[in-house]
């Protein structure tokens, strides 16, 4: 009997009726002969409610340490409720089950409260319970620090919990149940001709997740790739046996027989462009700018530098997340006297659109097709960035949907 990890997100456990459906899906895997661990999120909307309560409680007084650790105690409680309810529901169906909190497994995490990373998961206790025939229902999103404090893994952290547990248990697979039935070539809400992919490589999924696709959390894909854990994305809104062979398998590139040139088109509206004008064009300037931003934990993505009209000067543009835009401007302005640039501007009315595919490594002309398709639709490109398997462009936000549809058609993704 092989071990299987199943993970259910907030919409999948939003109420008792949906929890009963989850229990039926779990029971089907038990009856198929699997030893099952289930990782659950908080019920839909519950984490937002808990976060709002912590905001209402306010910050610690001056002289006292920040309350990040207590924030984690509060927001981790949502998963505890779901785990207990699912375990009760399974028992009502005659399935042996018990709930496990992060500290009981234990899922050992660092002490960066609110955004902790998993250090270790000793699997012995969990494996013994599963081998004895008990379904382990585990509260996702949470771990425990080495000094015994609850720590949470950041938004989407239940995906990371599930993959890490699958790796620790040497599970045959990690099934991520969500409100979509797989990974699509693009957002079906924008392009009705979007197609579900049967398989997608870890590298492609990682790019899709980091470039705006909301199907899987980025850190969970990184972990799956590092540990070689096959991940299947599928819908929780079906009954057992209703959709055989459903979902998308995220796996090693070598397991995909037909390499597509482009597998998907992703987009993100959570972008802001920072423009610096009249920068002195000499070594060390970029180091100062991006060093200050890094020290403030502001993540910078696309960067382009060009010569300014004045000799010995340059202009620079880079992108950050929208919520970091004003802070980034303040950090840059604080360094204006040291750096000596003329002015800074911010534009939040932009979007990033990307094409992703492992086939780019061995095919020329991918960029030409992208730029031609956008030009034909009158979409102006502001910034470009590339990697081995993706090309991203920054455009005016008003053209996002037009650009996505044009690129989806340009690469024949509606024909898959």
Brief summary of the model shown:
This protein has 416 residues and is an alpha/beta fold. 33% of the residues lie in helices and 26% in strands. An 8-stranded mixed sheet has the order 3-6-2-1-9-11-12-10, sandwiched between helices.
SSE order and pairing:
Blueprint: E1 3-8, H1 16-31, E2 35-40, H2 46-57, H3 68-75, H4 77-92, E3 97-100, E4 108-109, E5 118-120, H5 124-131, E6 135-139, E7 142-144, E8 150-152, H6 157-169, E9 173-178, E10 199-201, H7 202-210, H8 218-227, E11 231-235, E12 248-251, E13 264-280, H9 285-295, E14 300-307, E15 313-321, H10 325-334, H11 336-339, E16 343-356, H12 366-376, E17 383-387, E18 390-396, H13 400-410
Parallel strand pairs: 1-2, 1-9, 2-6, 3-6, 9-11, 10-12
Antiparallel strand pairs: 4-5, 7-8, 11-12, 13-15, 13-16, 14-15, 16-18, 17-18
Keywords:
26% strand; 416 residues; eight-stranded mixed sheet; alpha/beta; 13 helices; 33% helix
Explain the overall architecture.
The structure is a single chain. This protein is 33% helix and 26% strand. It contains 13 helices and 18 strands. The protein has helices at 16-31, 46-57, 68-75, 77-92, 124-131, 157-169, 202-210, 218-227, 285-295, 325-334, 336-339, 366-376, 400-410, and strands spanning 3-8, 35-40, 97-100, 108-109, 118-120, 135-139, 142-144, 150-152, 173-178, 199-201, 231-235, 248-251, 264-280, 300-307, 313-321, 343-356, 383-387, 390-396. The strands form four sheets. It has an eight-stranded mixed beta sheet, sandwiched between helices. Strand 17 and strand 18 form a beta hairpin. Helix 1 (16-31) packs across helix 4 (77-92) and helix 12 (366-376) crosses helix 13 (400-410).
